[in-house]
Amino acid sequence: MKGDFGLKIDFQKNSENPNRIFKSMAQLIEALQALDYHLAFPFRNEIEPYFLLEDIETGSLTTWLRTNLKEINDDHLISLEWKKILGRFLVRAKYCVLTWLGDEKEIDSREKVFSLQAKIDEAAHEEKMNTISIYSPPKEVELLSDIVQIKESLEIQNEHDATEYISPQGVATICRTFKIDGDKISELLTMKTISSELDLILQIKKPDYLGNSKWVFRHQKHFIECSITDFPWLTQFHSRTVEVLPGDAIRAAVKYNVSYGFSGEVISEKYEIIKVIEVIKVKDPEQRKFSY
Question: What are the CA-CA distances from residue 51 to residues 31, 96, 201, 235 (Å)?
Fold first, then answer.
C-alpha cells in the first residue's frame, strides 16, 4: 500500500458534471478527518490526528493518505510505539464504521449506535489501545455528525459512481444509500428538552426576503439561525409595510429550546421568534458594515 489507507472513486467515463468526483473526494477526506478527531477523544490534550497526502492515482480516482499525529502538549513526550498503536487503531476504526454502515443500511435507533460503538471498542482492544490509555468510544452525537458528513460527501456522486476505503483490514465499499435523518437522530439522542421564553434584542445579519428560510442574527458576538412565526409581522415585512435591513435590530419574544442527551450534554439549540415587539433602526450608516 502507498499509505495507511486509500480512498477510491470509480466513475463512468465521459459522464457529465466531472467536478462532482473531486468535490466528493475532498468532502469525504474532511469527513474522515473529523471522524479521526472524535475517535481520538481520550487523547485530545496530547495529540491531534491529521492526514498526509502520499499519492493520487488516475483511471479511477484513488487518493492514498497517511495518518500523522501532531503533539499538542509539550510537557508530554509521546513515544513512537504509542503513536504507532493509535495510528493503526484510527485506520481500523474507520474501516469498522464504513463496513458497519454498509451492513446496517439505516440508523433508526440508539441500539444501532451502541452496536457501532461496540465495534469501535473491539477495534481498540484488537489494536491494544488499553496499553496506552483507558479507551472510550466517541460520543454518540459526534459519531453521528461524522456519519452525516460522510453521507453528504457521497450525495454529490451519481448512481454509477462507487467509492471504496482501502485498508490493511480489507476493502470497504462505502454505501451511498444508507439512511440517516437529522431530525430523527436528534430525537434518538435527546433525553430531555427544556423550553423557555426570552426577551432579546437581536441584530439582523441576514433577513429572509423570500419566506422559505431562516433569518440569521447576531447575539452576544455569536450568529444564530432563527425562524419567525409572528406571521402578521412577516406579512408586513414581505409587503414592505415594515422595512428592516442588515444591521438593524429587533426586540422580540424568543422561544428557546435546548435538547440534552443522556449524559447531560447539549444536543441541539433552537430559536424561534414568536413575537416581534419593535424594530430598532441603525442611526449611523457606518454601523451597517459590521453586520456583514
Answer: 12, 19, 43, 51
Of the candidates 215, 199, 225, 213, the residue with the CA atom closest to the CA atom of residue 248: 215
* Residue 167 and residue 204 in one domain: no
What is the model's pLDDT at position 128? Answer: 86
Rounded CA separation 56/3 (Å)? 11
Average confidence score pLDDT of the chain = 87
**51 lies in which domain range?**
5-186
Contact of 118 with 135, CB cutoff 8 Å = no
pLDDT score recorded for residue 45: 65
CB proximity list for 257: less than 8 A, separation 6 or greater: 193, 194, 195, 268, 269, 270, 272
Tell me the three cell numbers of residue 62.
484513488
Q: How many whole angstroms separate alpha carbon 213 and alpha carbon 191?
A: 28
How do residues 95-114 score in pLDDT, each as one tens digit? 999 999 988 888 888 888 89
Same domain (yes/no): 96, 238: no
CA distance 117 to 1: 28
Res. 135 pLDDT band, cuts 50 70 90? confident
Looking at the 3D structure of the chain, how many domains does it have?
Answer: 2
Are both 9 and 142 inside the same structural domain?
A: yes
- Please count the other Cβ atoms lying within 10 Å of the Cβ belonging to residue 250: 23
